[in-house]
């Protein structure tokens, strides 16, 4: 399933390092829309300078939290956001995604509401997702044909028992290289018998 690749990466990789070094913009994309997969990869990357600067996060009304999970950067918000019909003042960035940490013990309930596909569903682990957008975009090199995609994901994690993580993973993927056509087999040659030597009468 296509959604599993970006979702798995968002839970296993450190933050992207490709964001431009710049001062955080006061007019950052709307956080709730970012969590609900209503924005794009560029909007997600606009938050990267904030994640590298605790003072910038505090200026936004975010309080950095102790790192309970080595793959997540967590914040407590001064003003809660409402996402997927639930209010939360606890968010986290992980890899190429951002999630709200919701007071829902069973992520399956929300996954059914959002009509997500099942990635993992065991008594210990639940992971659901669905690609909601994949559109052509201009890449960082200015070329066309890149794919800007967004995947809603809902899961649980051992570091946050009794909670549901719900949010979005964003990616910007380069164009796939066109496959070269397979070499056509050379036409079979038919041996033509040499003319028989002339025999004198």
SSE layout:
Blueprint: H1 4-10, H2 31-35, H3 41-45, H4 48-51, H5 54-59, E1 62-64, E2 73-83, E3 86-94, E4 97-102, H6 107-113, E5 117-121, E6 126-137, E7 146-155, E8 164-173
Antiparallel strand pairs: 1-2, 2-3, 3-4, 4-8, 5-6, 6-7, 7-8
Describe the structure.
The chain is 17% helix and 33% strand. It is α+β, with helices and mostly antiparallel strands and 201 residues long. A hairpin with an 8-residue loop joins strand 1 and strand 2. The longest helix has 7 residues, at 4-10. Residues 5-26 and 190-201 have low confidence and may be disordered.
Task: Please tag this protein with its features.
201 residues, alpha+beta, disordered C terminus, 8 strands, 8-stranded antiparallel sheet, 6 helices
Short description:
With 201 residues, the chain is of the alpha+beta class. Helices cover 17% and strands 33% of the residues. A hairpin with an 8-residue loop joins strand 7 (146-155) and strand 8 (164-173).
């Amino acid at each position: 399933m296509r959604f599993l690749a970006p979702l798995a990466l968002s839970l296993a990789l450190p933050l992207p390092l490709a964001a431009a070094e710049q001062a955080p913009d006061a007019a950052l994309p709307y956080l709730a829309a970012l969590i609900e997969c209503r924005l794009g990869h560029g909007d997600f990357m606009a938050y990267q300078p904030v994640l590298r600067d605790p003072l910038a996060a505090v200026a936004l009304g975010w309080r950095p939290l102790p790192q309970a999970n080595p793959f997540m950067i967590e914040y407590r918000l001064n003003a809660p956001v409402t996402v997927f019909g639930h209010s939360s003042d606890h968010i986290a960035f992980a890899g190429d995604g951002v999630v709200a940490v919701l007071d829902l013990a069973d992520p399956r309930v929300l996954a059914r509401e959002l009509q997500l596909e099942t990635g993992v569903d065991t008594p210990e682990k639940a992971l659901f997702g669905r690609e909601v957008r994949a559109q052509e975009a201009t890449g960082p090199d200015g070329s066309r044909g890149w794919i800007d995609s967004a995947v809603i994901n809902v899961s649980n994690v051992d570091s946050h028992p009794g909670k549901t993580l719900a949010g979005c993973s964003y990616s910007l993927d380069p164009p796939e290289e066109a496959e070269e056509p397979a070499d056509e087999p050379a036409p079979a040659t038919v041996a033509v018998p040499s003319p028989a030597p002339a025999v004198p009468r």
